[in-house]
Each structure stands twice: as C-alpha cells, then as structure tokens.
Amino acid sequence: MNQVVDNVYRSNGLVYRLNRSNKKMIRGGTQFEIPIMYADLINGGFYSGYDVLDISPNDTVFNAAWDWKQAYVPVTFDGLTLMKVDSPRAVLDVVKYQFAQAELRLAEVLGVGVWSSGTNAKSVDGVQFAVDDGTEGASATYGGINRNTYPFWNCQIDAATTATGLPALQNLFGKASEGGRTPTVIFSRQANYDFYWALHTTNQRYPVEPAGHDVQLAQAGFSNLVFNGTPWLVDSHCQASHVYMLNEDYWILGVHPRADIYMEDFQVALNQDAISAKMFWGGNLMCTNPSRQAKFTALTS
Q: In the predicted model, is pLDDT for residue 171 greater than 90?
C-alpha cells in the first residue's frame, strides 16, 4: 500500500504539493472547524503614565467549518478469473494490474476533487469553490461564511484581461500579496502555460525558454516555469482560460488517519463467486484566507 499511496499523491501537481506540505491528520469531530481572524483589534496603542487603558474585548474571530468528504475505489476479483490465473506469478500479475487501475482511479477522483467548484455536495470543497467571490462556485457561502456578508472572504479576481502579459500578471500577483506573504504556486491548463512561455520567446532574436524552475518539482516529474520566483505548473483539472495564484500558507488538506488511502481486507460476496475490497480516502480541503488567493478567469491568448 505504501507504493499505492505514493503514486496517488504524486498524480498531479496540486495533490502532490498539498500532500508534501499541507496535509494534516485530523481525528474525529463532526466537522473541520478553524478559527478565522476577520478584523484587527481596535484597542491598543501608545500611552503615558496614568492614562486609562481600554481593555474592553473585541470580537475579531469566528470559526469556519467544513464537512468531512469521502472517496472510495473498489478492487474486485471473480472466482473464474482466479481459477484461470491459478499460479503464484499469474495471481501476482493480476493483483498488480487491479491495484494499478484502482490507484489511477483514486488519483483521478482526488485530482478532480481538489479542483471542484462545490456543485457536488459529496465532493471535496475544491480550489474553484475556495478561490472565488460567489460568482463561479456553487454558492456565496464557503466554509460556513457568506461572502456577501463578509467581503474579506473573497479572493482577488481579474475577469477583464484576455491576453496574457507580464504587467497584468504582476498586478494580480501584487493584489494577492501582503508583506512577505505572496503566492507560492501558480496553476493553469497547458494553453495558458504556453501563453506565458511564449512571452519569453516572441521578442528574442534567438528564442530562449523562461529562466528558472522549481528543482524539487522537476525532480518529482512536474515540468514548471517560474514567475516572480513562484513555480507555474500545468493541471488539466483547472478551468479553461483560468490561471490560479495560490498562497499555500493558507491551505490545509485535512485527512483522517484511518482513511488516508486505507485498504480494507478482502471479503467474500454473499451471493456471488467473487472477492472484493475497497480503498478509502476521507478528509477535505480548506482555505483559511481566500483574500490572499487570486485568479484570472478570461485569459484566451
């Protein structure tokens, strides 16, 4: 199972990075609840001598909440197949083949889930749902917080720019930045990735590729470019014409220890000549600060 787990979590760039740096094992609870600081303290400041200090409490924090989400993939063998391959090596080959199919399927389920828009209530609350202002996602309520009531819960959106250009990229990157906190990864489909790549070649007498790449991602098999020192990766699950600038400091992939790609024992079917087991995953994806995330929604060239 260790190899299966590794293969699933290395299936696409976003799942790989979430598993590497943002996965948190969470045991029990009816929901994932995370305190969100939505305002600065009003009190505090300079004083002198016997000045009266205002120590009245300020309500600046409330909890965001996300539900548990579950995924599974079955692994099944019928009795006739087991008879046909009744030799140690043949059985091993069949088991490896079925597990390879199962891990590919679970990787796709998670890959789609982490990018979902919230339209499927059973799916992971994905990036399209989190990085939004209530116009593209399933609703204006994310993590139990309504974006119309609390605008700080909205992300930074550029819905006007249609042609990829460095000034537009820099402008949105700056809007998603605050102090030393900037987007840590950029995702798009291949077409938008190619638009960015072309910016570095069209004006060169001798075309050259954009300089730099994230070495760790490259070693893991993910080709990437760099913008402002931030790796730019391709993920086919992104929406077309969208480019996402994500700050991973504010993302949590919550997973239950007993459902972190857990394989149950094989069981004999009651009314069939077959054995079956299921591979499980349980958790959710949470963004604790959507305002530090950004996206282009209309880049077509």
A: yes
The DSSP code sequence of 35-83 is EEE-S--S------TTPPP-------EEEEEE--EEEEEEEEEEHHHHH
Bridge partners (DSSP) listed for residue 285:
253
Encode pLDDT of 158-169 as tens digits.
Answer: 999 999 999 999
All residues at 6 or more sequence positions from 35 whose CB lies less than 8 Å from its CB, including other chains: 61, 62, 63, 64
Closest CA relative to residue 178, chosen from 252, 247, 251, 248: 247
Contacts with 155 (C-beta within 8 Å, 6 or more apart), sequence order: 130, 131, 132, 133, 176, 290, 291, 293, 294, 295
d(CA 231, CA 265): 40
Whether residue 128 contacts residue 138, with contact meaning beta carbons closer than 8 Å, is answered with no
- For residue 283, list its beta bridge partners: 69, 255
